[in-house]
């Protein structure tokens, strides 16, 4: 049986292994990672899926703001164990994350991802037409979703991180992991 629950500290190593398996070590080179580095996920918005004791899925959302100061969440990464892809776990994680974000009062979610996959959840490139990432990104894969009606109306500019800073030991561990992955890439 698969259970979706809040991420706990002991999930971190397994989550990183899953992300490497799904996206490879070059994942840390992406612009989205620049908005996550040194930050904690948005409060209450780091979820994992487990089957027994094994972590088989993860999704996190991060506090960001648009260039004009409009708050939003950046979703990612969403990952499911390759052996379980195609059975609906990714969709279940997405629905849980979006519902929780809305329940917590967040107005909008942004992401860089596969447009046909995320369209079924309501994400659209038109919602981010006047927004940009703080580095290279594929415009056609940059998508937005209003959780509250009109939350992204008039939003413009380059995204920047606004989330809580991670404690120093966590930043050091993250930096060491990123350095190792960059070297592998």
What does this structure look like?
- 30% of the residues lie in helices and 26% in strands.
- By secondary structure, the chain is of the alpha+beta class.
- The strands form 2 sheets. Strands 1, 2, 3, 4, 5, 7 and 9 form a 7-stranded mixed sheet that branches. Strands 6-8 form a two-stranded parallel ribbon.
- Strand 4, helix 3 and strand 5 form a beta-alpha-beta unit.
- The model has no long low-confidence stretch (mean pLDDT 93).
Protein traits:
185 residues, alpha+beta, 7-stranded mixed β-sheet, two-stranded parallel ribbon, 9 strands, 30% helix, 26% strand
Question: What are the segments in which pLDDT stays under 50 over at least 5 consecutive residues?
Answer: none
Quote the beta fraction.
25-35%
Radius of gyration: 16 Å
Average predicted local confidence, pLDDT: 93
């Amino acid at each position: 049986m698969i259970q979706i629950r809040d991420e706990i500290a002991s999930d971190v190593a397994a989550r990183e292994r899953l992300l490497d398996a799904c996206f490879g070590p070059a994942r840390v080179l992406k612009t989205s990672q620049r908005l996550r580095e040194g930050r904690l996920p948005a409060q209450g918005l780091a979820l994992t899926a487990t089957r027994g004791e094994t972590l088989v899925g993860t999704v996190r959302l991060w506090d960001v703001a648009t260039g004009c100061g409009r708050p939003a969440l950046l979703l990612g990464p969403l990952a499911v164990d390759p052996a379980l892809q195609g059975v609906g776990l990714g969709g279940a994680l997405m629905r849980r994350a979006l519902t929780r974000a809305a329940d917590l009062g967040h107005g909008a979610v942004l992401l860089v991802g596969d447009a046909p996959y995320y369209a079924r959840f309501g994400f659209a490139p038109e919602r981010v037409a006047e927004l940009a990432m703080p580095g290279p990104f594929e415009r056609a894969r940059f998508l937005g979703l209003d959780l509250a009606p009109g939350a992204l109306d008039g939003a413009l500019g380059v995204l920047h991180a606004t989330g809580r800073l991670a404690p120093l030991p966590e930043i050091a561990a993250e930096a060491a992991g990123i350095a190792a992955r960059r070297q592998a890439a």
